[in-house]
Design goal:
Shape of chain A: globular
Structural class of chain B: alpha+beta
Number of strands of chain B: 3
Order of helices and strands of chain B: HHEHHEEH
Order of helices and strands of chain A: EHHEEEEEEH
Distance between the termini of chain A: 21 Å
Number of strands of chain A: 7
Oligomer: heterodimer
Strand order of the largest sheet of chain B: 1-3-2
Shape of chain B: elongated
Number of helices of chain B: 5
Strand content of chain B: 5-15%
Radius of gyration of chain B: 20 Å
Largest sheet of chain A: 7 strands, antiparallel
Radius of gyration of chain A: 17 Å
Helix content of chain A: 10-25%
Number of helices of chain A: 3
Chain lengths: 146, 106
């Protein structure tokens, strides 16, 4: 299913510590964002439900804004939030809404497994049947069409 | 260039999606050839091609009596970038998350 990005990692800390890293504002700024991008403006705080936004700036000065709502927080196991880019950059109308879940599971006292799923990236419900097609398109792209 | 949501919108129809797949696989084709591959009427195929063209997904040129269609790779690339970007976003973020957790270790 290409409309879902799923990442799984074993992280070198307890589930409680990983949860703090993922959710607390002072920790989120240490990891949030694309490689090479800075985050000049944000109100990132995933410790409680509510709206969030983040502006990211590329090395060439281009700014993009993404925002959403934190919809569910169950420490130290689960965070759910919505996510949409703003068309045309900060202040623009919000584009298609997508959904992210972060699940954290203790492996042992020094390790936790984190599973991050970003849903609805290529589809809405009307297009849900076409994920196999996307896969084939991306396969072709990787084979050098583009 | 069309917005990303209009690209997704144009691709969201099964028939149009299949036309794009065929054009990606076989390269440039005439409207007539594309028509023969589907069980729907010529005018219906025409309408689909026109939606794809209007949204920047296909390139159209006229050669003699034929209208020839081909995929615009930059449009497909935009769709792919948009989705793949999210993977890059989260991978880079998780790399830094892991590094931050290691830094905090006593």
């Amino acid at each position: 299913m290409t409309d879902v990005v799923r990442l799984e990692r074993i992280l070198p800390a307890s589930a409680a510590r990983v949860f703090e890293m993922v959710s607390q504002p002072q920790n989120m700024v240490r990891w949030w964002g694309h490689e090479d991008m800075i985050v000049p403006e944000h109100n990132l705080d995933f410790t409680k439900p509510g709206p969030w936004y983040s502006v990211m700036e590329a090395p060439d000065g281009t700014r993009r804004q993404v925002s959403g709502d934190v919809t569910r927080v169950e420490p130290p196991r689960l965070i759910e939030f919505t996510w949409a880019w703003h068309d045309g950059g900060p202040g623009g109308p919000r584009g298609a809404e997508t959904h992210v879940t972060i699940e954290i599971d203790e492996v042992d006292e020094n390790r936790a497994k984190m599973v991050l799923c970003h849903f609805d990236l290529g589809t809405d419900s009307a297009r849900a049947g076409h994920t196999k097609g996307w896969l084939s398109i991306f396969g072709k792209l990787e084979n050098g069409l583009a | 260039m069309s917005s990303i949501s209009s690209l997704f919108g144009a691709l969201g129809d099964p028939c149009r999606f299949e036309i794009i797949e065929v054009l990606m696989r076989d390269g440039e084709k005439s409207a007539g050839d594309i028509c023969e591959m589907f069980d729907i009427s010529g005018p219906a195929v025409s309408r689909h091609l026109s939606v794809l063209h209007r949204n920047g997904l296909v390139h159209r040129r006229v050669a003699g009596k034929h209208r020839l269609y081909s995929v615009r790779p930059e449009a497909i690339q935009r769709v792919a970038d948009w989705t793949l970007n999210h993977r890059h976003f989260w991978e880079a973020s998780m790399d830094r998350m892991e590094a931050a957790l290691r830094e905090d270790k006593p």
